[in-house]
Amino acid sequence: MKHISILVPDGDSSLSNLEATFKMFNMANESFLKRGKSPAFETHLVGAHKGASLSNGVFSIQPNKTIAEIEKTDLIIIPAIHGDYKKVVENNRIFIPWLQNQYSKGAEIASLCIGAFLLASTGLLDGRDCATHWLAASEFKEMFPNVNLTDDKIITDENGLYTSGGAYSSLNLNLYLIEKFAGRKMAVLSSKIFEIDISRNSQSPFIIFKGQKSHDDHEILESQEYIEENYTQKITVEQLSDRASVSRRTFERRFKKATSNTVIEYLQRVKVEAAKKELEEGRMTINEVMYRVGYTDPKAFRDVFKKFTDMTPREYLNRYCRIALV
After folding, report:
1. Taking a C-beta distance cutoff of 8 angstroms, is the pair 188, 177 a contact?
2. pTM of this prediction exceeds 0.90
3. Taking a C-beta distance cutoff of 8 angstroms, is the pair 290, 274 a contact?
4. β partners of residue 86
5. Domain span at residue 52?
6. Is residue 211 part of a domain?
């Protein structure tokens, strides 16, 4: 039997993460019992103390174990914790040595959504892949530059450390963990019971690109604004570097440092974001949208669109077009 410790941090924890995770692992146990088999998991809500933890000042969560009582566990699951990320980490610093110690003793650790901030604060993710909510990507990169943030992925799995993308993609990681610890059949059954797409592996279709502008490089900020205002026109790196009065090489280096994108990637992302909005409105054909955002080659447009959304323009139109949904 695997011992599961679901962390109950201090602060505004995600109730949906906590309840869904607890329920999914215990539902797997019930399924095993109905088939005359032993349960696969022993699941506990684990806090720094046994006092109720308030979420959003409204709901309370009662841990049934404290970290001091858990000498050894097999899997620790960290839910999303909302609020100022630096304060969240500081307010939950008591968990960090415990997480490090449990990992050194063989425990695996999973973070759900922005729970990745607490996991990353342990240093265990340094040099490794990590997923979190795409809305928090900029802050995460700033706080943890040594972590390889793959902000398009739903799930990462590396050396007993698991992370998931935003919001309800945590359910996909729960399924992944159930499959790993209880087998494929139980994961498929769980996906049917909870009606979760077991094959979903990317959060790219849900990302809304908002250029990284929380930096102090004035010339690069002006270049970003120029791209966003003139993306339908042909824009070259040389044109932008000339506008900024710096060499191309210096401009590209400063642009990547400030925005975490190359100039070409940034321009492509702006075009794709504009295309997504047009496709959602449904007032234009795919070819009309392609020309509207400055592409003339259908294959090039399709390839770039799929690169950033993990879907073709046709697939995106069929799923998100407002007219199609009416």
Report:
1. no
2. no
3. no
4. none
5. 2-206
6. no
In whole angstroms, how far apart are CA 278 and each of 237, 264, 322? 26, 21, 10
- Nearest residue to 63 (alpha-carbon basis) of 73, 72, 75, 53: 53
First to last CA, the chain: 48
206, 232, 266 — which closes off a domain?
Answer: 206
Q: Which amino acid would we find at residue 287?
A: N
Name residue, tokens 């008591």: 94
Same domain, 138 and 177: yes
CA-closest candidate to residue 45, choices 71, 65, 19: 65
pLDDT tens for the 326 residues of the chain, in order: 899 999 999 888 888 899 999 999 999 999 999 989 999 999 999 999 887 676 777 788 889 999 999 999 999 999 999 999 999 999 999 999 999 999 999 999 999 999 999 999 999 999 999 999 888 988 999 999 999 998 667 788 888 999 998 766 788 888 889 988 898 788 888 888 887 776 655 545 555 577 778 788 999 999 999 999 999 999 999 999 999 999 999 999 999 988 888 999 999 999 998 998 899 888 899 999 999 999 999 999 999 999 888 889 999 888 777 654 43
**Separation of alpha carbons 17 and 3, rounded Å:** 18
Using DSSP, state whether 123 is helix, strand or coil: coil
Amino acid symbol at 198: I
